[in-house]
Amino acid sequence: MLRSTTSRSAAVVRQGTAALRVLLLLTVLLGVAYPGAVWAVGQVGLRDQAEGSLVRVDGRVVGSSLLGQRWTGAQWFHSRPSASDHAGDTSGGSNLPASSPDLQADVAQRRAALGGAATPDLLTASGSGLDPHITPEAADGQVTRVATARGLPRTQVAALVRQQTQHPTLGFLGQPRVNVLQLNLALARVAARG
């Protein structure tokens, strides 16, 4: 009986030691080496993306090409609405169903404010609330308002929308889209020259 107990104790110690070695090995590999390698690749080959795809104007950060922003005033193209008010530290939609009186009131208010530019993506928030893009149709619907507010020819503002339209990746992944921050920065450059 004593030999059996000693043998079992030795087996438990061996298994415990083996488990501890595996735990330490995996901690070093997956907790230190792998994250370190990913960080190094990001810093060497993908520095812009690793730092958040920040957009700078005259050396000053004005936003990220990956996060939507709230634009107000008739002189700017407006982004999609956001349930989180475009706060970069939180993400999510309102989770209101289409039948919700609150959502219907929000959509009606947005439709009235936008007038002719009332495309679906300007009336409803994205699932994340942080979408930086609108459809080319939503941008086109805002051209007249922006051109009038800026005193620019409508054709010039429409040409900016076409220039800033991003096409599907590899020609088939995703939809045509316009990054609102990039479009508004291009608009500001044209207006400054103007």
Please provide a brief summary of the model.
By secondary structure, the chain is mostly helical. The strands form two sheets. Strands 3-5-4 form a three-stranded antiparallel β-sheet. It has a two-stranded antiparallel ribbon with strand order 1-2.
Question: What does this molecule look like?
Answer:
It is a single chain. With 194 residues, the chain is mainly alpha-helical. It contains seven helices and five strands. It has helices at residues 2-45, 47-50, 101-114, 120-123, 136-150, 154-164, 180-193, and strands spanning 54-57, 60-64, 133-134, 165-166, 177-179. The longest helix is centred in the first third of the chain and has 44 residues, at 2-45. The protein is elongated. The chain starts with a helix and ends with a helix.
Provide tags for this entry.
mainly alpha, three-stranded antiparallel β-sheet, 7 helices, elongated
Please tally the helical runs, counting DSSP H or I stretches of 4 or more residues.
7
**Would you tell me the overall average pLDDT?**
88
Number of strands: 5
Shape estimate: elongated
**Rg estimate, integer Å:** 26 Å
Helix content: 40-55%
Q: What is the succession of H and E elements?
A: HHEEHHEHHEEH
* SS strand fraction: 5-15%
